[in-house]
């Protein structure tokens, strides 16, 4: 880290030292380092500013909460990258990232044919005990983990689906091999804290905020997909255009879903 001026010395007074350090780190992150750069280590900051490790963690934690810094487990703290800003529409992750000039990558974490949980069986209109295709994947953009997908597909819509290359766009695969074009979906968005396994895959701390999407997609009014996706809250945001329904006043609704 470059030598800093005496103006950056932490002083005793009404302003807590963690707040003083937070503003120093804010300046480093916004003016001195490009996005994705490593910040000084907690040990270096502790020695340089003569404060406790707790004070350093408090200052960094506040900037992580703001989205200015990102903690990567086992690697350190980095300046944040601009969030992927997505307008809701029915498109695959692969297509969406390419349209944004980002390089998409997919790792298949597991797949199987087995009976789904009751809510998924109902969504896919399967009888209790009937099997479906289960698939979980890790999705990356420009090498950075962005989302974990865990979903189910109706076997009648795409027989033998699990035998294909599942690292490609599933929407393209469904259309190309099965003539299935997803036309409509209902998507629910909620917030969750990352559990240990999802945090490990997304390279964030357990308990980090995540955006969770559950999407039930249909083709010709027949359910094909029940997909849940966990997106990093520090790297992903959603823009939802709103409009007033024709003939109604003051009742905005989502223009598209999903």
UniProtKB/TrEMBL annotation:
Q: Which SMART domains match?
A: HTH_GNTR (SM00345), UTRA (SM00866)
Q: Name one GO molecular function term.
A: DNA binding
Query: InterPro entries this protein is in?
Result: Bact_HTH_transcr_reg (IPR050679), Chorismate_lyase_/UTRA_dom_sf (IPR028978), Tscrpt_reg_HTH_GntR (IPR000524), UTRA (IPR011663), WH-like_DNA-bd_sf (IPR036388), WH_DNA-bd_sf (IPR036390)
Lineage top rank: taxon: Bacteria
Q: Which residues form the HTH gntR-type domain?
A: 15-82
Record-level GO BP terms: negative regulation of DNA-templated transcription
Give the keywords, sorted.
DNA-binding, Transcription, Transcription regulation
Name the record gives this protein? GntR family transcriptional regulator
Q: Which organism is it from?
A: Saccharopolyspora gloriosae
